[in-house]
Amino acid sequence: MGLLSFLGFGKSKQKAANRNTVVQKNRIIYHDEFRLMGTNYHKQEAFAAADYLSGHEHYFGKTDKELKSYMQRTLKPVYKYNELKTIDVLLQREPTNPNDKNAVKVLINNTFVGYLPAEIAKRFSSCIGNPKYRYDAILTGWGGPYKTLSSNLEKIVTREKELYFNLDLTIWHLK
């Protein structure tokens, strides 16, 4: 063994190959948060998903008497669905959709909650179900009917409002 090899300066073929190897990592190709589309056209399904996500507990599980006291103190309405959140999200391509061949629907517990916005679906629908890609998604929701107080702050009034779902979506390209 030569002096250079003994001191660690000799290059074996294996060491040279290891130094020249570039470790390729998975990389994020998309990340953003946005509101889902089409929820209002599928209200029954959206409310079924919201019931599932809320554990069928509405208005924080409070009685009207408790809600009235809270609203008199805060002057804030209370929504039927609050702080809905899950990572159990399934994205599914819908190439037979008559309105958009790139449509990607969002499902919770096998229940439709909305579509990716068209411009996002157009760019990334080919990634859904493709083994070279994966996605991470966090769905949040709120809204629906809400309770508020009458103008004299003495009577509870129920009003309607849209149910909203947002999706925080990250798409990864796998190496």
TrEMBL record:
Classification via InterPro entries: HIRAN
Keywords: Endonuclease, Hydrolase, Metal-binding, Nuclease
Keyword Metal-binding set for record: yes
Cross-referenced SMART domains: HIRAN (SM00910)
Source superkingdom: Bacteria
One Gene Ontology MF term: zinc ion binding
One Pfam family linked to the record: HIRAN
Protein name: Restriction endonuclease
Natural source organism: Streptococcus anginosus
Taxonomic lineage from the root: Bacteria, Bacillati, Bacillota, Bacilli, Lactobacillales
